[in-house]
Specification:
With 443 residues, this protein is an alpha/beta fold. It folds into 3 domains: 129 residues, Methylthiotransferase, N-terminal domain (Rossmann fold, 3-Layer(aba) Sandwich); 230 residues, tm_1862 like domain (pyruvate-formate lyase- activating enzyme), CATH 3.80.30; 64 residues, Nucleic acid-binding proteins (OB fold (Dihydrolipoamide Acetyltransferase, E2P), Beta Barrel), CATH 2.40.50. It is built from 13 helices and 19 strands. The strands form 4 sheets. Strands 2-1-3-4-5-6 form a 6-stranded parallel β-sheet, with helices on both faces. Helix 1 crosses helix 4, helix 8 runs parallel beside helix 9 and helix 12 runs parallel beside helix 13. The longest helix is centred in the last third of the chain and has 25 residues. It is globular. It starts with a strand and ends with a strand.
Length: 443
């Protein structure tokens, strides 16, 4: 029996999908890259914001149409949307054969088999804590890099975020389990590990009573074959001096930190239930840059949170221009039912949210343009990812760029490289958010 997977949303969801695919393969299913002709299609949904929900619904509708046309046989829907809208999925999409909550992901292979062999519609939605944190994965990333999920769930309870109700409380994986998986990944050829969780910096607090990310990083750095370790989803209030020291002294830990700050007005930050103030966040950024002058900081901001008046937005815009982030994303506040912010006074009009986001991103483009121009003449280690035959150049990433999020470096070379190789490249030009260069061995 052939099974296809459509996985939507964040890297954490992608790891869940990889574990489900491995379980299906172990049970004897053939995993197919193309949906056409699949016996069953699993849609692993996201529900973080309204756009993600719409994307999930659109994919369900597409699969319903394909089922009605006889192109596929069965539809299984799982992921975060099931946690928030299970009743709606059941009632509005009778063509869906199985509705599976994330707590039943570990049983998805059995449920797909039942869906294919029985006419009974299936509904399994146990507690989120049943979501497996360990297990084999069928990687959907290139063989030389992989996500490594070190925890799931979240206990921060930001007022705009539904993740705690969707994914449950924060749960760390035991260190031994993470290190063993990292060793297995290294043995298969993975060179770059990208650590992920809803709150990576909170790792270990629930299991060990203390923040254990620095200790975990030291153990991961000792694994042969792993060359780069990248940190995503770090919360500013848990970036400790010990973590900064490990980043500054362990060569394998990249000087790159994804630090979602969300806002820079103290009143808005308090309404968001974000710990820390703009001044404290500014001090942290200065500390990181003092310890690692070449550190690349990526952040995200939200515009249009309830109560964000022009003064609050001015504070945010000023902060963005003062801090000059290397990487930045911006999204408009999306009110989610069941969150505290959904019912807050002072809701901001959609056009105002969008306009403010455009202002920030325009400012950020100028910042990135200046930073990239300043990198001309510098040499960077590049992880080669592809060869563009049309442009007659290689495509790769420096330590400054997370895959599928940030930019790339296009470079020419007289040498032959394979994906996963490292090259030393001197920057010669810029291309919007990307860099252009030449292999230094060929200069």
């Amino acid at each position: 029996m052939r099974v296809g997977m459509i996985s939507l949303g964040c890297p954490k969801n992608q790891v869940d999908a990889e574990m489900m695919l491995a379980a299906l393969q172990e049970k004897g299913f053939e995993i197919v890259d193309y949906i056409d002709g699949a016996d069953a299609v699993i849609i692993n949904t996201c529900a973080f914001i309204d756009d993600a929900k719409r994307e999930a619904i659109e994919n369900i509708l597409d699969m319903v149409e394909m089922k009605n046309e006889g192109v596929i046989r069965k539809i299984v829907v799982t992921g975060c949307l099931v946690q928030t809208q299970r009743e709606e999925i059941l009632s509005e999409f009778p063509e869906v054969d199985a509705v599976v909550g994330i707590g039943a992901n570990g049983s998805v292979a059995d449920l797909v088999e039942k869906a294919l062999t029985q006419d009974t519609r299936l509904f399994e939605c146990p507690d989120q804590s049943g979501l497996p944190l360990d297990g084999q994965r069928l990687l959907t990333t290139p063989e030389y890099w992989a996500y490594l999920k070190i925890a799931d769930g979240c206990s921060n309870c930001c007022t705009y975020c539904a993740i705690p109700s969707i994914r449950g409380a924060f749960r760390s994986r035991p260190t031994e389990s993470i290190v063993e998986e990292a060793r297995q990944l290294a043995e298969t050829g993975v060179k770059e590990l990208i650590l992920i969780a809803q709150d990576t910096t909170n790792y270990g607090m629930d299991l060990y009573g203390e923040l254990r990310l620095p200790a975990l990083l030291r153990e991961l750095c000792a694994i042969d074959g792993i060359e780069w370790i990248r940190l995503l989803y770090c919360y500013p209030d848990k970036v400790t001096d010990e973590l900064i020291d490990v980043m500054a002294t362990e060569p394998k830990v990249l000087h790159y930190m994804d630090l979602p700050l969300q806002h820079a007005d103290d009143r808005v930050l308090a309404a968001m239930n974000r710990r820390g103030t703009a001044a404290e966040n500014r001090a942290l950024i200065e500390k990181l840059r003092e310890a690692m002058p070449d550190i690349v900081i990526r952040t995200t901001f939200m515009t249009g949170f309830p109560g964000e008046d022009e003064d609050a937005f001015d504070n945010l815009a000023l902060f963005v221009n003062e801090m000059e982030f290397d990487r930045m994303g911006c999204f408009a506040f999306s009110p989610q039912a069941g969150t505290a912010a959904y019912e807050m006074d002072g809701q901001v009009e959609d056009d105002v949210k969008q306009r403010r986001g455009e202002v920030l991103m325009n400012d950020q483009y100028s910042i990135v343009e200046d930073k990239n121009l300043a990198r001309i003449g510098s040499t960077y280690t590049v992880l080669v990812e592809d060869y563009d035959a049309y442009a007659d150049c290689y495509v790769g990433r420096t330590y400054m760029d997370a895959p599928e999020i940030d930019g790339v470096l296009y470079f020419t070379s007289d040498r032959n490289y394979e994906p996963g190789d490292f090259a030393e490249v001197r920057v010669t030009d810029t291309k919007e958010y990307d860099l252009v260069g030449r292999d230094v061995l060929c200069l």
